[in-house]
Amino acid sequence: MSAIDSILTTEQYQTQQANAMYKDGNDDEMLGRDAFLQLFTAQLKNQNPLDPMENEAFVAQLAQFSSVEGIKGMQASLETLVGNLREQSLLSGSTLVGKRVAVAGGFGQGGGSRPTETLVSLQEGADLLTMSVYNKEGELVFRQNVGELEPGEHRFAWSGQDTNGNQLPVETYQITASAIKDGRMQIAPVSILETVSSVSWNPNGQQLDLQLLGGDTVSLAEIQTIAE
Q1: Assign residue 197 a region: left if phi > 0, alpha if psi is -120 to 50, beta otherwise?
Q2: Range in 9-13, 42-46, 170-174 the model is least confident about
Q3: Which of 65-69, 174-178, 223-227 has the lowest mean pLDDT?
Q4: Beta-strand (E) ranges in 97-151?
Q5: What pTM did the predictor assign?
Q6: C-alpha distance from residue 106 to each of 36, 71, 110, 134 (Å)
Q7: Domain-by-domain residue ranges, the chain?
Q8: What is the CATH number of domain 98-227?
Q9: Mean pLDDT, range 35-59, rounded to an integer
Q10: CA gyration radius for the chain?
């Protein structure tokens, strides 16, 4: 006996509908959309006249079906939105290739023959600014005092040499800045200027990642300044 020909009580019908799984496929173990509507219509036509479906049960089944349809439509819209966002982000991010971006934190590639450029932000200016460079072991390899500076953002370049003028190996270094103003010393934020070599979409964070010439990867959200 097929599902269409069967006559169920209201309680049996509600139990069957509650156990049924709904999806847009043809899986043998799933109840597809057409089968759901067909079964729903058949049960209404063949319900037991001595125990008809109550209005509340009828409305509940329609509400359940409408909710599932609404959720599936929303899911499809969100997937389209994410796809469009990814395409637009990649398109706009491609304009950053070859640009120099400021990565906060003071860590970046240095040494060798390539100078390392930095941006130092001074909100109150400085009577004296001290730039320090540390290798990956935390050892101080270079230090230089800079004279009086006005408030604002200042750019400096480290040649990749130690204090004695010896060329250092290419690796990751940390550059820090300390400013003295009116007899008070405070740490000044330092950003490293790196060239963007490529961009890619990160599906985990749903964001754009930038691959830097030095080999590091940062998210677009971490970038504070874009320079020529």
Answers
A1: alpha
A2: 9-13
A3: 65-69
A4: 100-104, 107-110, 116-122, 128-134, 140-146
A5: 0.57
A6: 61, 46, 11, 10
A7: 10-92, 98-227
A8: 2.60.40.4070
A9: 64
A10: 33
